[in-house]
Design a protein that fits this description.
seven-stranded parallel beta sheet, 369 residues, globular, six-stranded parallel beta sheet, alpha/beta, 13 helices
């Protein structure tokens, strides 16, 4: 069986770990190569990985020298017939260079977990990135996407990739942690506990949550866990508000029971941009959505988003528009025990395949090897 060489921009992203673990469980030989970067610590993959150097966050120009330095090493580690699996565009470009050095006799896979704003702009930088991505797409065996809308709204509509070359693997859970709760059923006699977890970068959502905590200090408590990124005053705001607590970073999947077992609701909305709206916030499905489904915790989503459509369709939580904070606050403050009970009952009735993997990875491997 051919070897799979996984190229990671950071070693700690749970999505990468899920893919690596699934490939290994299916019997594939997997080698892992990762760059270091300023990011949440998480945990390293469950096998040794080769360190390729350090990358600058959000700086493609500064990343290029590090990528070029890694090419000779990866060329020596790989051979024709192997699979080069790049997580993100920069890793796929790295894989493409190695692919070319092997005379295009390897198989290149590009996994896209998000569409960045720079890919949708009209300026020369965005046009250059889309041109580079088309070079990758022309060489790939498969393009793996984590949300259906990435295919229909971007890869097919913008980049011209036929749907037959796209492979969907959502951000579902790959393990089944214990489902426990430390909270009695909320009946209105105690504060409602809201969880805000993950990469903490949604400025509009944070402002709505902060104002809710300020306006209803006896009615709501907010538990924040994760890595602050893009909300510069988060720690100061938490320190100034007694009913908001920050518990630091956490590790997937080890810490999930402690997170979801201590909240009545969880905020799952993908960040809506401040200012120019390119619409891309409507496409992803967040890790928190699948986790909340698994743990049976009702959720708050963004109106008009992919998560929001499912929340409304299954009636498993509330959607708000963070671009209209006054209306969002009013909807949050109107949540009552009957709402929570109904949402929990509907969550318990969800089909497990909505939030747990079935045979996705086996089918992907069959298409690659």
């Amino acid at each position: 069986m051919a070897r799979i060489h996984c190229l990671l921009p950071v070693p700690s992203q749970p999505r990468f770990h899920k893919r690596i673990a699934a490939f290994r469980a299916a019997g594939a030989t997997v080698r892992v190569y990762a760059f270091e970067r300023e990011y949440f610590r998480g945990k390293a993959p469950d096998l040794n990985y080769h360190r390729l150097g350090r990358l600058q966050h959000e700086s493609y120009r500064q990343r290029l020298p590090a990528l070029l330095r890694a090419v000779p090493f990866l060329w020596r580690q790989t051979r024709p017939g192997d699979v080069l699996y790049g997580f993100g565009l920069d890793m796929a470009l790295l894989g493409l260079m190695v692919h070319w050095l092997h005379g295009a006799r390897t198989r290149l896979v590009y996994e896209c977990g998000d569409i960045r704003p720079s890919m949708l702009g009209r300026g020369p930088g965005s046009r250059l990135l889309r041109w580079l991505e088309r070079r990758v797409l022309a060489a790939t065996t498969r393009v793996v996407i984590t949300a259906p809308a990435f295919g229909s709204h971007y890869f097919t509509a913008v980049q011209g990739v036929p749907s037959s070359r796209l492979f969907l693997i959502e951000n579902k859970l790959d393990v089944m942690p214990p489902r426990t709760t430390a909270l009695p059923v909320w009946d209105g006699s105690r504060p409602l506990r809201l969880g805000y977890f993950g990469l903490l970068r949604d400025r509009l959502a944070w402002e709505v949550m902060r104002r809710w905590a300020q306006q209803a200090p006896q009615a709501v408590q907010i538990l924040v866990r994760g890595y602050p990124f893009g909300i510069p005053d988060l720690r100061e705001a938490v320190a100034a508000q007694p009913n908001i607590g920050f518990g630091g970073e956490y590790v997937y999947p080890d810490d999930l029971p402690a997170l979801y077992g201590h909240v009545d609701l969880v905020w799952v909305a993908y960040p809506r941009p401040v200012g120019d709206d390119d619409g891309r916030w409507r496409w992803p499905r967040t890790n928190r959505f699948y986790e909340a489904c698994y743990f049976g915790v009702p959720m708050i989503g963004q109106t008009g988003s992919a998560d929001g459509e499912l929340i409304e369709g299954y009636d498993i939580g509330l959607t708000v528009d963070t671009a209209a904070p006054e209306t969002a606050l009013a909807r949050l403050q109107a949540i009552n025990p009957a709402d929570l009970a109904r949402w929990r009952a509907n969550l318990a009735a969800l089909p497990p395949e909505l939030y747990l993997y079935t045979d996705e990875h086996e089918r992907l491997l069959a298409a690659l090897l």
